[in-house]
């Protein structure tokens, strides 16, 4: 099963919070826009407030407020007047744009907020007035009027701004400002602060879980390297994870016991079979020479080899757990070649060894490494054709490569041959079915693995990787 790229839980949490932030921002934008579109009076009020601010700011800068484009371009839709006093008997107009619009309000509507020329004082506020046709379309108009008070250069001024509809779409600037105040600013300042707080709080809460993850990783290494299991610690974990850790520890207890029983059973069976097999071999040797005796001797010899392999398999993890040494792979490979040189010569083959000038040292068990290399080389001697060479090479990256010129391994069997007791119908699979499985287990115990590939020119290339540096 192919898994995607793995991410830390804290990073995934941060990503999820960013997604939530974007979702919240989107919701704020939609709600803000929807609110002002549904509340038209509020949007008109804010638009008039913006016009009043623009007029006052222009006066403070010494500019002419009537030069603003909406007043020149839409004279029947926007207008304003500026008075120097609130009370009717004291005030006078000091600036105005499109006065006809406001005069029509005085003619068609009555009220203290509108009738500034009727001898009434000005009152701050916003009002909506229905008047006669202003823009010539034959329909009455709904005019919005705001009266506000501002100080410019130490003087108090009263500003009246009026608008009919909003052909200049000034509401867009108002809505943009509201979005900045109610959506952008909270998203940029408040939400990131909350995100950081939640992120660091989550990281702090996840520390016990990180500790358990580290322990679980060490547990996996212990499983492959043959070291005893260490139970996971549930100290400081939330209740939800404490149950998970307790369940894992219970499974580890059962697994440890099951593995121990399996190793004991395999070892006991192997020990119990060795003695009767040795007696049988001795008795068979006393039979009259012939094809039957040879066939029985061969079968018993294969069975004795299987028993020895099973015993080695059962004892491999115990050997690694008891003691580790600094092992020179080149020296072990050299000894294997010396031991098997005679067997190769008698079968019409030769062995060549290529090793680096400096020692290639791994942390492990020399007997197990010897067994692993020996099994692969013995298989190569059995399957290589006469007058061929078996090549063994030790590389500085702690790998041992064994090449032969035999029939090779089909692609469909390149993994199957490393399974215990798997025996196919090809010459490459002759044997007990345990040897290559034992080699893989020994490689695992040393932090590595073994695989087979095709040798250029024909044959098989076995690569034993021993990953634990000394």
Automatic annotation (TrEMBL):
Listed transmembrane segments: 12-38
Tell me, in one coarse class, where this protein mainly resides: membrane
SMART domains named in the record = HAMP (SM00304), HATPase_c (SM00387), HisKA (SM00388)
Q: Name one GO cellular component term.
A: membrane
Gene3D superfamilies, per database record: 1.10.287.130, Histidine kinase-like ATPase, C-terminal domain (3.30.565.10)
**EC class of this enzyme?**
transferase
| Annotated compartments | Membrane
Residues covered by the HAMP domain: 203-260
Recorded catalytic reaction(s): these are:
ATP + protein L-histidine = ADP + protein N-phospho-L-histidine
- Name the Pfam families for this protein: HATPase_c (PF02518), HisKA (PF00512)
Q: State if rRNA processing is listed as a keyword.
A: no
Where is each Histidine kinase domain found?
Answer: 268-470
- PANTHER family listed in its UniProt record: SENSOR HISTIDINE KINASE TRCS, SENSOR HISTIDINE KINASE YKOH
Q: What name has this protein been given in UniProt?
A: histidine kinase
Species source reads Enhydrobacter aerosaccus
């Amino acid at each position: 099963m192919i898994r995607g790229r793995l991410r830390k839980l804290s990073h995934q949490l941060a990503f999820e919070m960013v997604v939530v932030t974007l979702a919240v921002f989107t919701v704020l934008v939609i709600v803000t826009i929807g609110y002002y579109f549904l509340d038209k009076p509020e949007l008109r009020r804010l638009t008039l407030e913006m016009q009043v601010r623009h007029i006052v700011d222009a006066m403070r800068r010494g500019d002419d407020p009537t030069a603003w484009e909406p007043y020149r371009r839409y004279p029947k839709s926007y207008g304003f007047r500026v008075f120097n006093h609130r009370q009717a008997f004291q005030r006078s107009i000091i600036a105005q744009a499109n006065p006809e619009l406001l005069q029509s309000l005085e003619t068609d509507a009555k009220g203290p907020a509108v009738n500034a020329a009727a001898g009434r004082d000005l009152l701050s506020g916003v009002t909506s007035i229905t008047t006669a046709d202003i823009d010539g379309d034959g329909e009455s108009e709904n005019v919005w009027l705001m009266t506000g008070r501002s100080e410019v250069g130490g003087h108090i001024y009263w500003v009246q701004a009026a608008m009919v509809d909003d052909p200049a779409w000034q509401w867009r600037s108002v809505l943009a400002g509201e979005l900045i105040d109610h959506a952008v600013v909270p998203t940029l300042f408040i939400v990131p602060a909350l995100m950081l707080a939640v992120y660091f709080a989550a990281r702090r809460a996840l520390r016990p879980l990180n500790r358990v993850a580290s322990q679980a990783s060490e547990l996996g290494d212990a499983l492959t390297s043959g070291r005893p299991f260490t139970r996971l610690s549930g100290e400081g974990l939330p209740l939800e994870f404490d149950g998970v850790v307790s369940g894992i520890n219970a499974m580890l207890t059962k697994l440890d016991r099951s593995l121990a029983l399996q190793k004991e059973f395999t070892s006991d069976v192997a020990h119990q079979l060795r003695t009767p097999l040795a007696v049988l071999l001795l008795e068979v040797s006393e039979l009259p020479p012939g094809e039957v005796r040879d066939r029985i001797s061969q079968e018993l010899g294969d069975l004795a080899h299987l028993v020895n392999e099973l015993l080695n398999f059962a004892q491999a993890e115990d050997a690694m757990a008891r003691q580790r040494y600094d092992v020179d792979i080149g020296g072990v490979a050299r000894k294997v070649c010396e031991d098997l040189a005679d067997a190769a010569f008698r079968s019409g083959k030769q062995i060549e060894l290529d090793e680096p000038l400096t020692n290639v040292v791994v942390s492990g068990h020399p007997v197990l490494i010897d067994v692993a290399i020996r099994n692969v080389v013995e298989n190569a001697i059995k399957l290589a054709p006469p007058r061929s060479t078996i090549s063994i090479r030790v590389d500085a990256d702690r790998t041992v490569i064994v090449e032969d010129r035999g029939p090779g391994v089909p692609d469909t069997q390149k993994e199957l041959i490393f399974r215990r007791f798997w025996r196919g119908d090809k010459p490459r699979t002759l044997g007990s079915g345990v040897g290559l499985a034992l080699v893989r287990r020994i490689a695992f115990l040393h932090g590595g693995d073994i695989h087979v590939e095709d040798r250029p020119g024909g044959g098989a290339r076995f690569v034993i990787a021993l990953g634990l540096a000394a």
